[in-house]
Task: structure prediction
Amino acid sequence: MDAFLDVTKIRPDKKLIVIKKRHGGRNAQGKITVRHRGGGARRYIRLVDFKQERYDLPAKVLAIEYDPNRGPRIALLEYADKARAYILAPMDLGVGDEIVSSRKKTEVRLGNRMPLEFIPVGVTVHNLEFFPGKGGQVVRGAGLGAQVMAMEGDFALVKLPSGEIRKFSKDSAASIGLLGNPDARLVRLGKAGRMRHLGWRPTVRGKAMNPVDHPHGGGEGKHPIGMKFPKTRWGKHALGVKTRRPKKWSDKYILSRRKK
Result:
């Protein structure tokens, strides 16, 4: 089965792309801060409009395109004034469909965008704003969707794809529908060459090293790592480490934590 049957246009719009500069995992001093990065195919960044601030102006879908920098497809829009823009394409959005973004109540239709206070309970949304007017920052991955659970005063309760239930301002905008290309998670690269095309260099297992080079190193033949938990090259826990700061300012907005 062809994984690109939903793509209707190959070349991106030249006015909506910029070159993606590569750094090879190095910082401003030229030191490697992210290992195993380098090379890869040259890419262009598609300038996706996460805000959609051309309010109450209908836009027609000209094409559904592939974006090498993200999982979901992107849709090329043309507004009534002939201006063009890219947005994240929800599932089942097709060429010729019309969508609209508004700050007031509009039709609850696939691809339309409006504040959470005007979206009925139970509707699936994506490209959700943390802060009103800042643009969508969450629920932007392939096949993802969040569900509006309830309205409480100035906040909307939204269940995120992780299972977390969180408060969002009722003025935060969201787009209707589930994001497309849900099979993106099923892709198997299949060979080392495809990893190189993505910009990933070879990675050596710690077990294959000597004890002087890695905590997992040493031993004869096939052997376990010989410790209670896997470690990084520098001796720290490699799995299950909590990265969220305790007492973070936004904890008060989280009503139920994500599923483990």
